[in-house]
Amino acid sequence: MRRVVVTSVVSAVVPSPGWPAGEGLDEHCWTNIDYCDQNRAWYPASNTLAEKAAWKFEEENGLHVVVVNPGTILGSMIPPRINASMAIFLHLLEGTRITIM
């Protein structure tokens, strides 16, 4: 095996309140773990730590890692109930308003 593609999520990149406004997000931009801890935002914190572990694994093992950070992944629903990600789209289709953190 020479290359591994990791499907991460955009929450590994944002929230990053210290990132300069208007500057594009790249491989140097990470979700701020301290900010996540203070705001009990465990999902973005866990994704950031998992992705950083993948990059560390690459360094230590000479494996080429490629990471994609999609905002949403769409496909067939596996769970019998609508999950939080799908609920956002349901609200959009219904024309109802919701607040997203």
UniProtKB/TrEMBL annotation:
SUPFAM superfamilies per UniProt: NAD(P)-binding Rossmann-fold domains
Species of origin: Aegilops tauschii subsp. strangulata (Goatgrass)
UniProt keywords, alphabetically: Oxidoreductase
GO molecular function terms noted in the UniProt entry: oxidoreductase activity, acting on the CH-OH group of donors, NAD or NADP as acceptor
Name of the protein in its database record: NAD-dependent epimerase/dehydratase domain-containing protein
Higher taxonomy: Eukaryota, Viridiplantae, Streptophyta, Embryophyta, Tracheophyta
Entry keyword annotation includes Oxidoreductase: yes
Presence of the UniProt keyword Oxidoreductase in the record: yes
